[in-house]
Amino acid sequence: xxxxxxxxxxxxxxxxxxxxxxxxxxxxxxxxxxxxxxxxxxxxxxxxxxxxxxxxxxxxxxxxxxxxxxxxxxxxxxxxxxxxxxxxxxxxxxxxxxxxxxxxxxxxxxxxxxxxxxxxxxxxxxxxxxxxxxxxxxxxxxxxxxxxxxxxxxxxxxxxxxxxxxxxxxxxxxxxxxxxxxxxxxxxxxxxxxxxxxxxxxxxxxxxxxxxxxxxxxxxxxxxxxxxxxxxxxxxxxxxxxxxxxxxxxxxxxxxxxxxxxxxxxxxxxxxxxxxxxxxxxxxxxxxxxxxxxxxxxxxxxxxxxxxxxxxxxxxxxxxxxxxxxxxxxxxxxxxxxxxxxxxxxxxxxx
Length: 351
What we know:
The chain is of the alpha/beta class. The protein contains 14 helices and ten strands.
C-alpha cells in the first residue's frame, strides 16, 4: 500500500491519448459516454455517485482515506489499513436499482448489533479489509468487490496510505473562544464547535494512488463535492500528485455545493464562503461550473463573484429532496449534471 507513485509524465504515457481509439478498461470505446471522475467522501459523494451513474456508464469515484471514527477507525487502528468506510459507501451508491444491486447495497451497509467485538462493524468494511489482506493490493480488492456487487463504476482510494486530518480551529474549546488550537482526527474536526480555519493531512505529502491520478487526467468531467468541506472535499487538494492532476487535466471541472452548512465544521458558512476556503487551500485550481441548489443561495451575486475567481459559471437548479431534508435527490441531481455536461464546454462525442 505504500508503493511510490509514478510521476505525472509517466502516467500520461500510460493513459490513452485524446487522439487514439480510447478503448478503456471495460473495452468501451471512448466517446460512447462521458468519462466522469467524482471526488469526495461520505454521504456527499454517495449522493453524487447515485446521480452520476444514471447518466454515464464510465464513472470513477476517488475517495478520501482520512476517516478515523467508528468501524473504520477501529479496523484502521487494529490492522493498519486504509479506512474502508467511505469506500464502502461509494460502492453501495454505485449498486444498480435491480434486485441484485439493492440486495448487495443493503448487505454491505448492514451493521452488526451485539454486545461483543463485532458491534457497530459494517459487513462491507470487513469484506473489503479481508480482500486487502488476501490480495495485498487495495485497488485490485476494490475492483473485485465492485464486480461482486455489480457496481456501475469504479471506486479508488485517493491515497495509498491512511491519512490523519489536522485542523486549525478557533474556539474549539468554548471556554477559550478566541484561541486557535490544532485539532486532530477527522471525526473530531467534523464535530468541532469552533471555526475551522484550515486543514492539512499527515503525512504532509502523501502518495496518490496512480489509478486515481490517471483517471483524473483522462476524464471528460471531474466533479468535486458535495460533502463535508474540510474533512471530505478539501483533503483531495492536499495530495500533491492528485492536485497536480486536477490543475493540469483537460477535463471540465464541476464543484457541487452542499445544500446547507454542516453543524460543526462549516456552521454559518455562506455558499460563497465555501469557495473562498477552497481557494485558500488550492489557489491554482480552476473550475468551469459551480452547481448549487437554487433555494440554498440567498445572495446570487456574491456567489457569482466568488465563482469568477475560479473562472467558473454558476448553475442553479432544484437538486434537494422535496421532504425538506438537506439531502440531494438523485434524479434531480442527475438532471442537473446532465444539463451541465450538455451545455458547458466542448460538446462531447457521446451526444
